[in-house]
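Q: Please design a sequence for this.
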């Protein structure tokens, strides 16, 4: 049976997503939760290892019980977890939330999972259950570990660990809960054997904690969603609280439970589909929720808490926890910003939940080191990017010359790249090349590339649809970037495959202060890329490339080698086009069916483009150096010190006027072209694939320090027609 369950997850055609069928199976007495007791007993007999604690826990808790024991246990638990009963714990939850926020403010590198959600869950549920409060981190780890019992085919090593952890968690339960001086009675206090003879209060308490941990997972999941949306959503929480319809929308879209599994007790038909005794039904909660919400009169209908006899008994506690926690956080931390590139999820066949949610708590600028200040205030950032007199770009060329002198190493190629990277340039030479590039990439010139953009977006959509394992980056965003930016810039090579393999290294030039060993590695790559460069074939293009226009222009400060280096740097910076397309697709898909429908409308995308760019722009930082000693806000800055403008914080809540493309003299020269491509690619994608869904385990982040980007976004495509 265990092997059958495991294999069932890999048979996609047999996974049930129809909400009507899912509801019928969950309500039917002809289906039961898969039993693991026989598997545990068999392992115990084979290994000679006692799993007495696991067996006792599975026999005593509702999730593993059969009727009539299951029904009796559930009836005994139910009165404690009604909406009316849990409401009395509101002051307890509010106090715990205030304490958890206070703790978060003391953490140096805060993470919402480990430093907020988990401690809050233990504090709240610990009091509701009646635990002896001790080491919160250890207790949280034990609860998460025991929760693995719901997974099929656990090894003996894992089961031995869980056996010991059940014994350990029992030590957190008071031997004889006292009723004296208790203003609120915990579950253990109200569930002694003489009160509810059918219950084993201790085992039931352990499993309630283990099952209840989904409340922490769901809270983290919802926070990760809210903090990736437009800041106004977060501010609305602070002002108006969490309305019931918004809560249900979040729970429906973001369930920690991916699938539910039942086995047939007898031969039965469900919605016309036959099941034989012993057949396994694997149900897709996420798909069922989405279909239910689009077909039901109630747009917030969902199956996130299950249905029928095994519906989650802690649903009302979870709702209350979310309702009290999220607005309180929004009020206390209005500028809370998620480091999206560092978010990590654990995805199993049955569950999904965040394991790391690193955040910045405030928008206050802060000195990071003796030579580095991080700018998080939007007003201060605008002051910096608009004042080229006092704040200039990093002086990379002098830095490299000093390195070459001290080390005795040849840095000629790195110097050529640095002196022709526009984001490190200033003065007359920068103004000269900026004017020349703007003549080709200005808003009144890029219309010459409209046909190319339309053709390549359509080709990328066809390419994506043809793939058995579609990846929004490899099969869509990257081809659009390469097949548009190469002809526009004039990038042509003698070996396209080798060039494409090497080209991603061009992005590393965005980081200004690399170590010598890293610079030497990059220099070798740059030399190889430069040697692959060939003159573009202008006869095949609908308009002259930027390289050809620059080569024919009167630019006395630039040699042909300089211009080739400049074009390569621009191509490296243009990777942000691919990254931003991927980020926007990821963002909109996660927002659900309504957002995907809206994004299929080119007019909607045009109206919301600045908002999407502010949220999904891929650059993480803008760097500036102090040309003189001065003050920024409350921070004294010495000449030569570096400012790092943290764009995720600065752009949160901004629309028009965001800094995703920079500002002032160093605003990205490709901004207009990027926006034009986004206006075409985004609506065409969602028009073709309105039901696209991401594969949670296929979302892979690029390990780059300067850019927010995904290296893979594997998905399921469900094209129309």
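A: Design:
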């Amino acid at each position: 049976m265990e092997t059958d369950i495991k294999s069932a997850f890999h048979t996609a055609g047999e996974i049930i997503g129809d909400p009507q069928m899912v509801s019928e199976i969950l309500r039917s007495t002809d289906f039961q939760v898969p039993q693991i007791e026989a598997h545990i007993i068999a392992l115990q007999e084979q290994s000679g290892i006692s799993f007495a604690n696991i067996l006792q826990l599975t026999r005593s808790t509702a999730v593993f019980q059969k009727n009539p024991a299951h029904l009796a246990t559930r009836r005994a638990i139910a009165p404690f977890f009604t909406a009316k009963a849990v409401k009395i714990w509101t002051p307890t939850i509010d106090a715990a939330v205030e304490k958890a926020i206070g703790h978060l403010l003391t953490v140096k590198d805060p993470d919402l999972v480990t430093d907020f959600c988990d401690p809050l869950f233990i504090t709240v549920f610990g009091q509701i259950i009646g635990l002896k409060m001790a080491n919160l981190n250890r207790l949280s780890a034990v609860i998460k570990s025991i929760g693995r019992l719901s997974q099929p085919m656990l090894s003996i090593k894992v089961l031995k660990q869980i056996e010991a952890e059940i014994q350990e968690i029992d030590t957190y339960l008071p031997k004889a809960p006292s009723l004296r001086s208790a203003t609120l009675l915990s579950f253990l206090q109200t569930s002694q054997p003489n009160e509810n003879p059918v219950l084993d209060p201790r085992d039931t308490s352990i499993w309630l904690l283990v099952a209840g941990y989904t409340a922490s997972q769901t809270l983290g999941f919802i926070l990760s969603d809210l903090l990736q949306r437009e800041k106004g959503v977060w501010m609305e929480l602070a002002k108006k609280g969490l309305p019931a319809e918004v809560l249900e929308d979040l729970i429906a879209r973001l369930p920690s439970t991916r699938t539910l599994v039942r086995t047939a007790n007898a031969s039965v038909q469900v919605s016309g589909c036959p099941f034989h005794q012993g057949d396994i039904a694997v149900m897709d909660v996420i798909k069922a929720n989405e279909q239910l919400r689009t077909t039901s009169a109630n747009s917030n209908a969902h199956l996130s808490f299950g249905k029928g006899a095994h519906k989650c008994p802690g649903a009302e506690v979870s709702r209350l926890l979310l309702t009290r926690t999220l607005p309180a956080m929004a009020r206390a931390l209005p500028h809370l910003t998620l480091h999206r590139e560092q978010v990590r999820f654990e995805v199993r066949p049955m569950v999904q939940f965040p394991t790391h949610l690193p955040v910045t708590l405030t928008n206050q600028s802060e000195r990071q080191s003796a030579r580095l200040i991080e700018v998080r205030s939007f007003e201060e950032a605008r002051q910096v990017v608009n004042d080229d007199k006092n704040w200039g770009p990093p002086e990379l060329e002098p830095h490299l010359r000093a390195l070459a002198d001290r080390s005795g190493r040849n840095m000629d190629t790195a110097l050529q790249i640095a002196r022709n990277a526009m984001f490190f340039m200033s003065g007359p030479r920068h103004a000269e090349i900026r004017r020349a590039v703007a003549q080709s990439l200005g808003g009144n010139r890029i219309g010459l590339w409209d046909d190319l953009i339309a053709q390549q977006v359509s080709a990328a959509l066809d390419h994506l649809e043809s793939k058995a394992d579609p990846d929004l980056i490899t099969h869509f965003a990257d081809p659009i970037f390469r097949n548009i930016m190469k002809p526009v810039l004039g990038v042509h090579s003698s070996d396209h495959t080798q060039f494409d393999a090497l080209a991603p290294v061009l992005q590393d030039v965005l980081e200004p202060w690399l170590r010598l060993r890293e610079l030497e590695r990059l220099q070798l790559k740059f030399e190889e890329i430069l040697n692959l460069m060939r003159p573009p074939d202008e006869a095949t293009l609908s308009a002259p490339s930027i390289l050809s226009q620059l080569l024919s222009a009167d630019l006395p400060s630039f040699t042909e080698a300089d211009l080739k280096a400049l074009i390569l740097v621009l191509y490296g910076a243009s990777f942000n086009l691919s990254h931003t397309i991927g980020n926007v697709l990821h963002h909109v898909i996660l927002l659900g069916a309504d957002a995907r429908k809206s994004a299929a409308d080119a007019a909607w995308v045009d109206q919301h483009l600045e908002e999407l760019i502010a949220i999904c722009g891929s650059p993480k930082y803008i760097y500036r150096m102090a040309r003189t000693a001065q003050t920024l806000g409350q921070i004294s800055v010495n000449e030569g010190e570096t400012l790092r403008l943290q764009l995720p914080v600065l752009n949160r809540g901004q629309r028009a006027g965001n800094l995703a493309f920079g500002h002032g003299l160093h605003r990205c020269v490709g901004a207009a072209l990027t926006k034009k491509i986004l206006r075409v690619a985004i609506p065409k994608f969602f028009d073709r694939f309105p039901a696209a869904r991401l594969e949670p385990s296929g979302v892979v982040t690029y390990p780059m320090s300067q850019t927010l980007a995904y290296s893979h976004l594997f998905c399921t495509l469900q094209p129309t027609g």
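Q: Thanks. Anything notable?
A: The chain has two domains: 2-360, 366-716. The chain is about 50% helix and 10% strand.
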